[in-house]
Amino acid sequence: MKTVSSLIFLAVGALGLLLASGCAAPQHSPASRTGKSCFYASQVNNFALVNRNTVNFRVGVSDIYEARLLGNCGDIAWTESIAFDAGATSLVCSGLGATLIVPTAIGPRRCPVNAIRKLTPAEVSALPRGTKP
């Protein structure tokens, strides 16, 4: 009986060491998991207003996306920051289900997003002055 419990103890200990040594599954970017150009809402770090219902925003260091809002998001012209709410996963792959959050003096304004797309390098270089985040 003592031998069986010793073997179980050793097996559990070996499994713990194996997991602690970094043999867990490799981490992949959101885009590689979904096959789309996705990002986490927390990765948005700058934005530029194109018009009252279009916003360009930077994700990470070099990726620039365009968000088309479902309607007019009036207070966005006066804000200095934005955020995205993408639900429980915080993963944004398209505009559907994502909401742009704009802080205002009376509380956050939620603006539904219709579509989000990643701009190509050629589109980024052709952006008019003031619309590149």
Keywords:
about 130 residues, alpha+beta, 3 helices, about 20% helix, globular
Q: Helical content, roughly?
A: 10-25%
User: What does the average pLDDT come to?
Assistant: 76
Instruction: Provide a count of the helices.
Output: 3
Domains, number: 1
> In percent, how much strand structure appears in the residues?
25-35%
Shape designation: globular
Helix and strand succession? HHEEEEEEEEH
Record field, number of beta strands: 8
Multimer state: single chain
Segments where pLDDT lies below 50 for 5+ residues? Answer: 1-35
Sheet/helix structural class? alpha+beta
Query: What's the alpha carbon Rg, rounded to whole Å?
Result: 22 Å
Largest sheet: 6 strands, antiparallel
How widely separated are the two ends? 68 Å
Physical arrangement of strands within the biggest beta sheet: 2-3-4-8-7-5
Describe the 3D structure:
This protein is an alpha+beta fold. The chain has one domain (31-125). Helix content is 22%, strand content 32%. It contains three helices and eight strands; from the N terminus they run H-H-E-E-E-E-E-E-E-E-H. The chain has helices at residues 2-20, 30-34, 121-125; strands at residues 39-40, 44-51, 54-59, 63-69, 83-85, 91-92, 99-102, 109-118. Strand 2 and strand 3 form a beta hairpin. It is globular.
